[in-house]
Structure formats: C-alpha cells, structure tokens
C-alpha cells in the first residue's frame, strides 16, 4: 500500500471510473467499508496502509489487480488474514473475475486451492512432494512420501 488515498492505491494512473473502482471494491467485499470512511475513495491511506487491517490491505490489493485486468496474477497468501467465510467469497470472485487468466496461488488452506486446475505441493526445503489436479492428489498416489490429504 502507498501513502495517498484509497483511489490512488487502486488507480494510481486514473484510468478507471468511480463506478469501476466501486465494482472492484464490491467484488472483494470492501465497498461498504470504504463508503463508511469520511471521504470515501478520497480517504487517506497512511504509509504501508497501516490505518487498514492486514486483511483489508490484502483485499485492496486484490481489488487493484481486478481493475488492471492482468493476464497473470500471483497471490501469496492473499486471503490468509481473512476468515474462512470471507475467503470462500473471495475465491468465488477470483474464479469469475480471473477465469481467463493464469493465477498462481500460494496458500495453506485447502479450500483456497481446491478449485485450481493444478496443484504443486512442496515439502520442507522447497522440494516437490506432489503435482496434479486436486482430485488426483486427494485420491493419493502410491509411492509418494507425502500426501496432499495431510493438509
């Protein structure tokens, strides 16, 4: 997060309309929160976004990526600081918004990655333990020293 305004953090080059920004905020379930601030989209964001919770900062960054319509999205624990129910809502949003994108997700919650096309499971030291579709990993593979089912 950058010091400035909510608007600047979501749209630093002023490419998008207020309605597009509001739609992105609504998609990540932050629209009401931002509207409740004194200045709405023009509310202040302090350095590193410290006046927002960690979860809110993650959601604001997700809204920014939605606006940019990037073709490759990398999310490292993007929903780690939100509760399970919010995570489910956000994952549904990611599936619809980024349906035509390559999404690389680092996660520890199985619910966060269960709808992915492919999973790469790493063990200590960054060694590959398993790779495949969620269904095939849940069924297990004989001979592998690590099981996806342990998650």
Describe the overall structure:
Strands 1-2 form a two-stranded antiparallel sheet. A two-stranded parallel sheet has the order 3-4. The protein is α+β, with helices and mostly antiparallel strands and 151 residues long. It has 7 helices and 6 strands, in the order βαααβαβαβαββα. α2 packs across α4. 40% of the residues lie in helices and 17% in strands.
In short:
With 151 residues, this protein is α+β, with helices and mostly antiparallel strands.
Tertiary shape: elongated
Number of strands: 6
How much of the residues is beta strand, in percent?
A: 15-25%
As laid out across the biggest beta sheet, the strand order is 1-2
- Report the structural category: alpha+beta
Radius of gyration: 18 Å
Helix content: 25-40%
Descriptive labels:
single chain, alpha+beta, 7 helices, 17% strand, elongated
